[in-house]
């Protein structure tokens, strides 16, 4: 089952470990934060923004953005801060990290945060890394590049275009979509409004809960909403290409992700506890979903399709579980140990295959190595099995 042509080494490792039940991924790094996170696309850093709807043990009402240094060769599970925390105006729903193209004064790219108050804030991470304090005024040491003010509701959809790093899409609870041009990050411009993207009686009426750029076609964007409708937009024509909803299940949609290799295929998940499904849709026939993945017992809150092996998909939800799926077989092949509260965010590392990050409302953000997945009940030695059946003796991911 697991000897798939073209699959990367860590897929075979999961298959070997999955003897009697699901393979269990052990934690390799962890930190005490109720935060949504973003991996740096170019450097060994992880950003964390205080998550909306979460209160820590001190009942603090403040919000912050932090950057942590990742060193997988260090056997310690702690993740050290890379610089001083930046206080933010509100809490985060989304945090994304993009490259900055030819911008020489942004060597670590741009961090963008979708906040509860409806703003999208842009930061220069190179001014956070290594800093001991931060200038909150307009001085050159202030890492805040600008605030994008377009939405009137919480920003729950946010993503950089994978082809044009200057393009940032945002969607909010007010039902509006916005496309920003960050060629000049200090003074971004707003593209003309998408036709039918806001206003009463249109397909996106109700909050935008998630959006994603197509991984193969630069000008295609998908958004999904609390109404249960998913819309695919063509930015060249400034209008929808197609919209769809499951005719049998009128449930709200919480998140979506495009297949990195198949341009017409995407997955849409629901956070409705009555129908906690993940539906694979192929736009060549959008009458009904191509496949439905069921294993979660409560609503799904986040999904992530593996960029280096398209047969692998992560999902997490209100049942406190984070699962790794084989999308070809439609089966769960691995999971991380269940938390004590909802798991609301899951992501693959863009730089290191097999590494994933998961966040939950129990106040923890943890990193896992799929290469070290082991069968349930196995002795916890911190080891796994390589593709050639040799022992893995370190939690550090393979180069």
Helix count, per DSSP? Answer: 1
Strand content: 35-45%
Secondary structural class? mainly beta
What spatial order of strands do you see in the largest sheet? 1-26-25-24-23
Low-confidence stretches: 1-20, 378-394
Shape: globular
Subunit arrangement of the protein: single chain
Number of strands: 31
Describe this structure in words.
There is one protein chain. This protein is mainly beta and 399 residues long. Helices cover 2% and strands 39% of the residues. It contains 1 helix and 31 strands. It has a 5-stranded mixed sheet, covered by helices on one side. The longest helix has 9 residues, at 9-17.
Features:
399 residues; mainly beta; 5-stranded mixed beta sheet; 39% strand; globular; disordered N terminus
Short description:
The protein is an all-beta fold.
Layout of strands and helices, then pairs:
Elements: H1 9-17, E1 23-24, E2 27-32, E3 35-39, E4 45-50, E5 64-69, E6 86-87, E7 92-98, E8 110-115, E9 119-123, E10 144-149, E11 155-160, E12 167-172, E13 177-181, E14 189-190, E15 208-213, E16 220-225, E17 230-234, E18 239-244, E19 253-258, E20 265-270, E21 278-282, E22 291-293, E23 300-305, E24 312-317, E25 322-326, E26 331-335, E27 343-348, E28 355-360, E29 364-369, E30 384-385, E31 391-392
Parallel strand pairs: 1-26
Antiparallel strand pairs: 2-29, 3-4, 4-5, 5-6, 7-8, 8-9, 9-10, 11-12, 12-13, 13-14, 15-16, 16-17, 17-18, 19-20, 20-21, 21-22, 23-24, 24-25, 25-26, 27-28, 28-29, 30-31
């Amino acid at each position: 089952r697991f000897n798939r042509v073209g699959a990367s080494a860590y897929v075979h490792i999961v298959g070997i470990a999955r003897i009697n039940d699901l393979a269990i991924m052990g934690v390799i790094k962890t930190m005490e934060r109720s935060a949504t996170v973003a991996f740096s696309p170019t450097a060994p850093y992880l950003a964390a923004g205080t998550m909306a709807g979460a209160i820590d043990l001190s009942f603090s009402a403040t919000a912050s953005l932090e950057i942590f240094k990742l060193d997988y060769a260090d056997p310690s599970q702690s993740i050290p801060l890379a610089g001083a925390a930046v206080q933010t105006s509100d809490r985060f729903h989304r945090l994304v990290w993009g490259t900055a193209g030819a911008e020489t004064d942004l060597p670590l790219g741009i961090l963008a945060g979708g906040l509860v108050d409806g703003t999208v804030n842009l930061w220069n991470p190179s001014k956070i890394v290594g800093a001991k304090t931060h200038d909150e005024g307009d001085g050159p040491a202030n890492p805040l590049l600008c605030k994008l003010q377009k939405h009137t509701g919480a920003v729950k959809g946010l993503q950089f275009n994978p082809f044009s790093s200057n393009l940032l899409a945002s969607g909010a609870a007010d039902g509006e979509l916005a496309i920003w041009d960050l060629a000049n990050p200090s003074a971004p411009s707003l593209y003309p409004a998408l036709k039918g993207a806001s206003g009463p009686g249109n397909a996106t009426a109700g909050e935008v809960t998630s959006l994603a750029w197509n991984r193969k076609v630069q000008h295609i964007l998908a958004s999904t909403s609390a109404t249960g409708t998913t819309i695919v937009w063509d930015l060249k024509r400034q209008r929808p290409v197609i919209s769809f909803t499951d005719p049998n299940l009128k449930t709200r949609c919480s998140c979506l992700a495009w297949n990195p290799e198949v341009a017409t295929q995407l997955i849409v998940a629901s956070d409705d506890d009555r129908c906690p499904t993940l539906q694979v849709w192929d736009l060549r026939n959008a009458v009904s979903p191509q496949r439905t993945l069921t294993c979660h017992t409560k609503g799904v809150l986040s999904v992530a399709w593996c960029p280096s092996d398209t047969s692998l998909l992560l999902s997490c939800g209100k049942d406190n579980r984070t699962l790794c799926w084989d999308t070809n077989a439609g089966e769960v092949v691995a999971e991380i140990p269940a938390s004590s509260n909802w798991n609301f965010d899951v992501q693959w590392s863009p730089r290191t295959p097999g590494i994933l990050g998961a966040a939950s409302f129990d106040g923890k953000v943890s990193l896992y190595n799929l290469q070290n997945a082991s069968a349930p009940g196995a002795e916890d030695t911190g080891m796994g099995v390589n593709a050639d059946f040799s022992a893995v003796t370190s939690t550090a991911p393979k180069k």
